[in-house]
Design goal:
single chain; alpha/beta; seven-stranded mixed β-sheet; 7 helices; 12 strands; 26% helix; globular
Length: 287
């Protein structure tokens, strides 16, 4: 069953929906997103406009196949060009992606199809299920590890696996070679409204394994057009550094709304962040 997710028929939704059904024979259902995604699971608010009451989609996007219930997961079909841009930076059998807010996993699935390893996490259990199914549908299940955790739990748990695997490799112990956990080289934080607030999950990332490479971070954010300085400063404040280094790049995407633009902030994780333990603030006595 194919569902047309139509956000542009607010004036005459029923009329527009009937035209879609008439012109596109494979479409059986037309829905309208009537509100922005909400909650930690980023669930959209959908309204059935015409056709069958069936929100299950099974489709291809940029050469990858996905299958999920449109009401239960986060999906954005309008940033395909951006996903291609990021994945184009990856090299087969060399780069590893850590997808912190994966949704249904398009970054991870595309990276895996290119021959890269991927760690895909989302707090929404329906998203995690959709990622696993997409990995199977695209024959990359052996390269995609799926997590269903809060991101502040996901990163430490992933690093435990990475550190254990690195120790095993240094011992030349091949007793469990079925599952590898190489250090990620790219981290994607596709949560534009609050991604920068989560950058502190990388504090102390490599304290226990300083020989590992510093990953490249891709954090998405939204701000008024050409007003990125405040967001960059916010990222510095969250990480506890004065600047984001010489590899800092700001990539402008499409407008999020008439007054807001979506950007991708890319930078190499500073060593001062990765090799320094985070400060633990203890509550005041008698507080």
């Amino acid at each position: 069953m194919v569902v047309a997710h139509d956000r542009y028929c607010a004036v005459l939704p029923s009329t527009a929906a009937q035209v879609i059904l008439a012109l596109r024979k494979k479409v059986r259902t037309v829905v309208l997103q009537v509100d922005e995604v909400s909650g930690v699971e980023r669930l959209p608010v959908m309204k059935l406009v015409a056709g069958d009451d069936d929100f299950l989609v099974d489709f291809e996007d940029l050469g990858c196949r996905y299958k999920f219930d449109l009401r239960k997961v986060f999906w954005n079909s309008r940033i395909g060009t951006e996903r291609k841009r990021v994945v184009a930076q990856l090299k087969k059998n060399e780069h590893v992606v850590c997808d912190l807010f994966a949704g249904v996993g398009p970054y991870s699935i595309m990276a895996a199809k290119k021959g890269c390893r991927a760690y895909a996490n989302d707090i929404n259990s329906h998203c995690a299920t959709a990622i696993s199914e997409a990995a199977s549908l695209n024959n990359v299940a052996n390269r995609v590890s799926v997590f269903n955790l809060d991101v502040r739990e996901f990163v430490p748990r992933l690093m435990e696996k990475v550190i254990a695997w690195e120790a095993q490799c240094q011992r030349h112990d091949g007793s469990d070679s079925r599952e590898s956990w190489p250090m990620f080289t790219h981290a994607v934080l596709n949560l534009p409204r609050t991604a920068i607030d989560f950058l502190d999950v990388f504090r102390g990332l490599l304290v226990r394994c300083p020989h590992l490479p510093l990953p490249l971070i891709h954090a998405y954010f939204i701000c008024p057009d050409q007003c990125t300085d405040e967001s960059i400063q916010h990222a510095c404040n969250v990480l506890g550094v004065e600047n984001l280094g010489t590899e800092l790049e700001i990539h402008e995407m499409k407008k999020f709304s008439p007054k807001l633009v979506r950007y991708c902030l890319s930078f190499r994780l500073p060593g001062d962040v990765a090799f320094t333990l985070p400060v633990v603030k203890l509550p005041n006595e008698g507080g």
